[in-house]
Amino acid sequence: MINKKVWEMSDSLSEQKTEDELWEEYRKTRSPALRDKFIRQYMPLVKYVAGKVSVGMPGSVEFDDLVGFGQFGLLDAINKYDPEKNVKFKTYAVTRIRGAIFDELRQLDWVPRSIRQRSREIEDSIVELESKLGRTVSDSEIAGSLGLSEAEYQREIMKVSGTSILSLNDVWYSGDESDHISIGDSIESPASMNPDVQVEREEIRKVIIQAINELPEKEKMVIVLYYHEDLTFKEIGQVLDVSESRISQLHTKANLRLRAKLTNFRKGIM
């Protein structure tokens, strides 16, 4: 009974402060009561992101499991958020929640080996072609390098996109795969980083933006609408007047191109 009264008093006092003031207080005190308030306030965001990720997932992936995975991302976001970076918490948290869900899905290893292998073959082909030609390559060029017609290549992409969980959270790995740098990481507080690491992350952020700008127009639009505007594939399909499966296909192709571009950049600076 006493704990309930303390909780209610804490909520009542919190409502008298702005959210920025609450975040500043949490940074200084690490108050469990404030942390719990933020968790309650932003749990709907976890369910929203889980709902987006669940689209196109096989039936073996439960929505409630995705929500559970996303909660780890929310806690991570609450602990690491720095209001002085002038980024809204919701924007920051979405990246962390989505990343936590993808991390757990990768550990489940539910993607068939044949699909994963085909995805890697397509990505490797793009890496080789763009390294050789020094430009963004067309679908027909990628298809030709794989010994496929363009129609066959599009069918292969559809097979890959049906089980793909590629994400912009994965586009840069520095060293082993447990040490990755993403757009989400680039808005973290650099207080604990040495100057060399700060410079490297800023350069990588610029490369990611450049790689997105070099995508074919429709693929670039899908990436911007999905990751920046936070639309679902269905909503993007309505904007572009194409089917949801076509948006899934464009999203997968864009991610494969991005990973290939950044692989070539990484090889260049290594």
Give a verbal description of the structure:
This protein has 270 residues and is an all-alpha fold. 72% of the residues lie in helices and 0% in strands. It contains 13 helices and no strands. It has helices at residues 2-14, 19-29, 32-54, 63-80, 89-108, 113-133, 139-145, 150-161, 183-186, 195-213, 217-228, 233-240, 244-269. Helix 3 (32-54) crosses helix 4 (63-80) and helix 4 crosses helix 5 (89-108). The longest helix has 26 residues, at 244-269. It is globular, with a radius of gyration of 21 Å. The protein starts with a helix and ends with a helix. The relative contact order is 0.09. Residues 4-9, 171-181 and 183-192 have low confidence and may be disordered.
Name the overall outline: globular
Low-confidence stretches: 4-9, 171-181, 183-192
Whole-number mean pLDDT: 79
Largest sheet: none
Strand content: under 5%
Q: Order of helices and strands, N to C?
A: HHHHHHHHHHHHH
Q: Helical residue percent?
A: over 70%
Count of runs of 4 or more consecutive helical residues: 13
Instruction: Count the E strands.
Output: 0
Distance between the termini: 61 Å
Q: Please give the radius of gyration in angstroms.
A: 21 Å
Structural class: mainly alpha
Q: Any descriptors?
A:
about 270 residues, mainly alpha, about 0% strand, globular
